Structures are given as structure tokens and as C-alpha cells.
Amino acid sequence: MNSSAPLNGVRIIDFTFQAAGAYGAMLLAALGADVIKVESSRRLDPTRGRENRPYLVSVLFDDVNSGKRSLALDMKTPEGLDIARQLINRSDAVIDNFRPGVMFNWGLTHELLSAANPRLVVASLSAVGGEGPLSDLPGYAGIFSAFSGLGFLTGYENGPPTELRTSVDMRAGAFFALGIVHGLLQAKLTGIGTRIDFSAAESITTLCGEYVAIFQLLGAETERIGNGDEQYYPHGIFGCSDDRWLSVAVRNDNDRQRLTPLLGFSETDTNEDLEFKLANWVGGKSRDEGFAELQRLGIPSSPVQDASDVSIDPQLTAREFFVEMGVRPDGASRVIAAAPFRINGERPAVTIGPPLGQHTNEILEEVLGLTSSEIKKLTDAGILA
Amino acid sequence: MIIVEIGGDPAVGFAGRFLSLLGHRVIKIEFLPGGDETRSRPPQYLGQEKDESSGILFHYLNQGKQSVAIDLDEKEGQSIVKQLSHAAQAVIVDATSLNRKHVNELIEQLGGDVVTVVSPFGLDGPYSRFEATSGTIFAISGEASMLPGGIGYQLNPDGPPLLARGHVADGDTGVIATLVTLAGLLHYANDKTRVSLDVTKQEAETSLNRWLVTHFRASGWIESRATRAYSYGGLTQCADGFVQIQPATDKHWQSIVNMLGKPKWSDSPELATQEDRAANGSLIQEHLAKWALSKSKSEVFEAGMAVGLPVAPVQNVADVASSDQYRARQYFVPASDVSDSPLELAGVPFRPHPSTQASYTSAPDLGEHTRQVLLEFLNLSNDQIRDLESRAIIKCNVNVVRH
Known about the structure:
The complex is a heterodimer of chains A (385) and B (403).
Chain A: E1 11-15, H1 20-30, E2 34-39, H2 59-64, E3 69-72, H3 78-89, E4 93-96, H4 102-105, H5 110-113, E5 121-126, H6 141-148, H7 150-153, H8 166-190, E6 194-199, H9 200-207, H10 209-218, E7 235-239, E8 245-249, H11 253-263, H12 271-283, H13 287-296, E9 301-303, H14 307-311, H15 314-318, E10 322-326, E11 333-337, E12 342-343, H16 360-368, H17 372-380
Parallel strand pairs in A: 1-2, 1-4, 2-3, 4-5, 5-6
Antiparallel strand pairs in A: 7-8, 8-9, 10-11
Helix pairs in contact in A: 1-8, 6-8, 6-9, 8-9
Chain B: E1 2-6, H1 10-21, E2 25-31, E3 44-45, E4 54-55, H2 56-61, E5 66-70, H3 75-86, E6 90-94, H4 103-108, E7 114-119, H5 134-140, H6 150-155, H7 168-191, E8 195-200, H8 201-208, H9 210-219, E9 234-238, E10 241-245, H10 250-259, H11 274-279, H12 281-293, H13 297-306, E11 311-313, H14 317-321, H15 324-328, E12 332-334, E13 344-346, E14 350-353, H16 370-377, H17 382-390, E15 394-395
Parallel strand pairs in B: 1-2, 1-6, 2-5, 6-7, 7-8
Antiparallel strand pairs in B: 3-4, 5-15, 9-10, 10-11, 12-13
Helix pairs in contact in B: 1-7, 5-8, 7-8
């Protein structure tokens, strides 16, 4: 562990799985926390078995579990539960993204755990929060995206709403990590732990909260406008000569003046004229030519990149955002995305998600002080599987 | 804790808003003459007791903050910003607001136990001088290439890729900037070591789509608008809008069958297994779509919930604003002095217990707190402040009456 990492010395017991919670915990690991992911062979993180996997374990699992340690523990046994409680008592936070009720049934609530560990942060992520009339709503990204309002707001004019999926999981996960660190900081400052009841839907609404304010202040419902913008014009995604797409945002009169020699804008042009001229110009360029020329003029633009483009993006490559690393003895490798930040000029180190139970023995020895014979007994009894 | 927010980029604005809602005192440095760009963004609103109308986005992003207005082109203005940064525990700076020729030098001179620098692409690399907006960042980071999927694509396969509405990429970056700033503050509280953090919009956004690239590099698979669809379910039209139906398991299939009244067609051998249903999803969707179209979205939602089916209404903004779920959780926070009628803005998506005391005052007028902040932190006299104001190095707006 990097001793200069901000969360160095913070220990987190991590019951998250799938994408949202696991990504949040991954960000905490990248910030230096010792994140101990608890699973059992009876209930694996489903992303371990996700299809579309050329190697031994899932690509998504490897990516969003980077930097964590794995503890195999059967939580359906009293001994497993007891070990979990002991670990939590010696940790700074326990986090999960179960449906509301699972942690309660295990007795792993803030009320019960804080008696032994008053500074503990107990954080739970669910679709719409653990309280309220709809707290049972399942936590799929499409579900909380629909509930949040962003799905309604996004889409072609006169077209249907839009379903936002895995990226929305990640958005919720990043915000979840923020909430956990807020709790850790408050615990440090006040000596009192916190319970964080996190709603994924609310996290997405917060990102488009200006439209809730518009509705309240002006009484106006916001309709879909495709790739338009309330202020910038022209603004949108335009087809290029090589059948690819370029995103362009003309922000103000300064931008329009800079474009005039290139596009022939005139003072009598309507907004539609401006957009026609821009679309016509972009249509005569390849995507990368258009991108380069517009950026040379200081106009915000970008290629619409798909997975293959992003994987060789020059800026991300220069900043070493993707890391290729060996994953098998035969030399097979995998690309993992790094954390989206640098700390004191350095990118946090990347490791692939751990195999189930890879760190079980070392965690039990190091954190709970168990001897190898005690660990063997637990192993033989099937508790550490 | 005191946070100094420098510059007008919405990503930095989001970060300051989150920190303000979490109970920190956020001092926003705005640059003269006009201040934050989002003040002029439409739609506009003239608030109660306000001198000027301002953009609703500005109202939203700057709730609870204090505004200090300074001319950064003047040496004295730059000096004031540096001095204020030294009074703060954390500084969050929009790198694009600083003189690009001297950006690194200016950042190095900032104080604060934690300094978080936010930029579109980073201060190094081939795109470091490139311009960007929330939309162009969204496009370059992979997600637009997959939108719209499902029926959005089926109805308009020749349409362009789609951007998420509003300032989502700015908000995503604001989340990461807040996360690392809070982590830096915790680090400083533990061992008194200063931390500098570098956050880029491109990386914050690409990180959300990381699976796209890792899958591509592992398997060669390129997810696209055409491939982003369910065999059945997904976005489904009702009489008065849309619902999202997300069957993922055998149990969910049984839920659909029960919801539709166990119709005869559901017994077809073509739909016997999960694989069969994936292959013949259009058969299911035909019946499901017809059934849903005769119902309101709330009827479909209630029927689905009753049988354990993952389903949610696609809520418009009015639905969101009146959501019983959100209200039960006190998600909206008051901003009572913005308008005559009660106004509530979207809050943070978690309820900390015990709660953290946050400021719920509305967004400030330009320079509303300049005098107060300079008196408090720089020990300037009233005469010195008047002199700076007379030379337009600062702006003090003291005409605002808060309730």
C-alpha cells in the first residue's frame, strides 16, 4: 500500500458486488484504503461468472475489483458471521449494496455494530434507498435510471426516452464512494461514526438537478431536445465524410466569429442556417480532420469514440490511463482501467480483481491474529469457502 | 472546513455544491467583470431580493456558497486569491480559468492543505490545451456511441449518437473531484501532509465506461447502439409514457407471465428456457408491448411490483419533483429565499445519520461576500477594501437582504 495515498490506514469491509457498489469500493482502494471484499463460493459476485470472458474470470470483475483483497467467508454459518463481526469491529467502514434487509438480518446494522466500534461508518447502496415506500425497488441500472429523470430527459426530440445502463451503475458507485469518505472524515473529526443510506436513483437525479429547479422556478416541464443545448448553438453531433461522428459545441459569439472564415457565417444567419453550415462543413471532413481543425480554432469538439477508439485515445494513452498486465502464467494479458485521478502527480497502482479467497489467510492472521491451526480448523469446517 | 472554489467550470461548481451540502463553508472566487459563466446561462430567473436575474443552473450549482468577486488579470487580484487559498483547508481550482501560459506556476502558488485541480483533459498530454464542454467530453468517452439503444435506435437507426441531457459529464467530474478532496482532507487530518490531486473530465467520464474498453481489449467486442438492446422488456411504452422493465432471471419471466394473467402463448415450447426466450424475445415483446400500451405507467408499475418484476416508471421532472419516495427520504433541500414560493433543490443522494448541518441559503449575488471574506481572512481595513473596489480589482455587493 502506498503510504502517501489519502486513505492509507483505512480498512473497509466490503460486501458489495456487481457494478455500482464494486466500482465505488474500487475507487476507495485506489485512494489507498485496504478494501477487503467478502464473498463465499455459495454466493459469488455474479460478475465473476459473467459471459464474454476469454480468460478465467470476468473482465468486468477484474476491472471494478482492482486493488482489493479477497476473503472467502460463508455468511450463512454462525462462525462466518462471527468472523465478519470481528473484522468489522477492527475496521473503519462496512459497506454493501444488498437489497435493504440483508444486513439487518445478519445483525450487521449501524445500531448494533457501533456499540463495539463507535467510529464505524456503515454504508448501504440500493436503488432508491433503504427507507421510503419504494425501498424494495430492485437495483438494476435501467430501473434507477428511469426513476431518476435522466432517462426521460435524454433522447431525440419527438423520440422515446433513453435507457442508460452500466455507466449509470458506475455513476452511482462513484457517488457512493464520496458518501463513504464523507462519513470517514466526519468520524475522524467528531469521533462518531455514521450510517449512510444511499439511493442510486437520487445520485442520478442530482446530476440533472438543474431541471428540477427549472420545473420548480418556472413551472415548465423539460422536453427532450436530442443533442441540443439551452445556451450553445450550434451544438450537437454531426456526420463526417468517413461515416463517423463529430461532437461540436459553439459556445458564444467569440466561437461563432472564429468559425466565420471557415464556415461563412453571416450576421443574417438564423440558428438553422448556422447549424446547416456547420453540418455541411463537418460532412466534408473526416472525423479526425474536423476535430483537429476545430480544436485549432479553439472550438470545443471531439470525436464520438467507441470502445476501439477509446482504447487508443492519444490523451488517455499519454496519461497512462489504461494498463496492460499479465493475468496468467502463459502470458495472457488484460487491459485494466486505472483510477480517474492522480495523487501527488502519480496514478494509483492497478491490480486485477483477486481470485476468491486469495487473501483469506493473511487477513485472518493480520487483522484478527488467528493462528494457522485456528485457520485450518475454520477451513476444514467449510467456513472459509 | 473552509473550501475555496476557483473558477466557473460547472464541474468545479458541482464539487463545491456537494461540499456545501455536506456542511463545509465554500467560498467561490468569481472573476470580474461578469463572474461565473453560468450566471448568464438560460433559462434565467430573477430571485427575491436579487439585483440581477441569473441562470437557474447557477442557482442550482451555487446554493449555500459565498461569492468573492476579483479581477484576476490584475496582480493585486491574483495576490488576493493566493492569500485566500492559504486560509482554506481545501482549494478546488478550475484550471481553464487560469492563464494557460502560467497555469502550473499559478497552481503551485496556491495554499490549502488539499489542492484539487480540475481540467478537461489534464495539464499534460497532447490534448492538454484542447477545449471541451460537458457534451464533447461525453462524446469522446465512449457512452454516446451506445446511445440510444433499444427502441430509441430501432425507431431512428439513421439518427446521430446521443448525448446525455445537461451537464452530466461535469457532474460526474464534480463527484470525483469531491471524492478525492474529502479523501485528501482526511489524509491531512491524520498526518498533516499536503495533498495535490489531479482530476480530468475525460478520465472521470471514461472511467464510467471502463468496461467498454476492457471488454474490447479482451474479446474484440464493440458495443454499439445497434447491440444495446434486450431480447424483451427494456423501455416499454404505456398509454401515458414509458416504463422500464428489466427481466433478468427465470423468476422474472414467471413474474411477467403472472402479470399478464398467465396467457396461453406463454406456454409455447419456444419460450421454455431462458435461452429460448432470449432467442424468441420478439414474441414476448409483442404481447408485453400490446398489454402495456393499454395501461398507464403507474398501472404497469404497480402490477409489476405486485409480482416481483423489476420495473420502474420513466419519470419526467414533474414526477421526480413530487416523488413520494424522494420526499419520504427528504432528498430535496430548501432554498427558501430564492423565490416567493417554497423552492426545493435536489440534494445529495444519501442520508447521513447523524445528519451533517448544511447551509441552505440560495446562490449568492456576484461579490455578495467579498467584503465579509476579505475582512475576515485578509485583515484588510474598510478603507483598503473601498480602494480595491474603486479600482475595480474587487466587487462588493452588499445590497442583498437575506431572510
